[in-house]
Design goal:
Blueprint lengths: L5 E6 L11 E6 L10 E9 L11 E4 L1 H4 L5 E4 L4 E4 L3 E7 L3 H15 L3
Antiparallel strand pairs: 1-2, 1-7, 2-3, 3-5, 3-6, 4-5
């Protein structure tokens, strides 16, 4: 079963406009209570090309040491989406850093204007 805070590579094609596209990593943010369904909610991840990249309030920096990815990256709460599990390509690892998990929650709250 897919679990909250796991990172997977996903095939996000086809997309429209400025949605994140291609095969890329994403963090599962949906609750374990609903992750047995056919769909899960994820935050796409993009790599950082410039170490001086500004991180917005609806984004979270992911150090490659804690994400199991090959590059430092950013989780994109402004690209939150629900996908069918058929888009899963392969498992990367489990995000365990409590500080980063809290930051992701705050980024989602900011994006959705939640208290």
């Amino acid at each position: 079963m897919v679990k909250q805070w796991e990172i997977y590579f996903l095939n996000l094609n086809p997309v429209i406009g400025s949605e994140q596209a291609g095969t890329r990593p994403a963090i599962v943010v949906s609750s374990n209570g609903v992750n047995h369904l056919n769909q899960i909610t994820v935050l796409p991840i993009t790599s950082i090309k410039n170490p001086k990249t500004f991180i917005y309030p609806n984004e979270v920096f992911l150090d490659k040491k804690i994400s199991n990815l090959s590059k430092d990256s950013v989780a994109l709460a402004h690209q939150i989406r629900t996908i069918d599990k058929q888009r899963l390509v392969n498992y990367v690892g489990m995000l365990k850093d409590k500080k980063v998990i809290s930051q992701i929650g705050e980024a989602i709250k900011f994006q959705l204007d939640l208290q």
